[in-house]
Amino acid sequence: MTALDELLPPIPPEPVSWWPPAPGWWLLALTLLLAGIGLYLLRRRLRRRPPHAGGLDPLRLAALDELNSLRPPYGDEAGPWLQQINALLKRLCLQRYPQSQCQTLTGRAWLAFLDSRCPSAGLTRWMVLVEGAYRPRCRLDDKSLDALRQAIDLWIRKHV
Fold first, then answer.
1. Where are the domains of the chain?
2. Across residues 104-132, what is the average pLDDT?
3. Confidence band for 137, pLDDT divided at 50, 70 and 90
4. pTM of the full predicted structure?
């Protein structure tokens, strides 16, 4: 009998356990967890953002909210509404352009100043904006009221 015959048969190794995972699996799990948390927070932040904001600053948003709260006087006297629109524009210009002395402008000079800040609004063609508040029983048709309101909205959104 030789010494090799006296050896015991080989013992098979134990099967590889799935726990604890290798360091690479831990890193992958941590990465997926952080990505999930990041996506959740991003989605929550985007959901909170107002849909009409469109990148507008708070001053413009406040002016648009005030403009939307002023109901056009369909079939009624437009003078008080025109005064409120002018007051809104003057306050906005005073905040935006404090050095311009815009609060002293009236008539065509006021409309020219507004158009110099946003020509696409075309407010110089709306002389009724400055004269209508002083006309007795000033009335505008529905189409004109809507067009003027849209021009003011455009000016608030786009002025430089």
1. 20-49, 58-158
2. 90
3. confident
4. 0.65
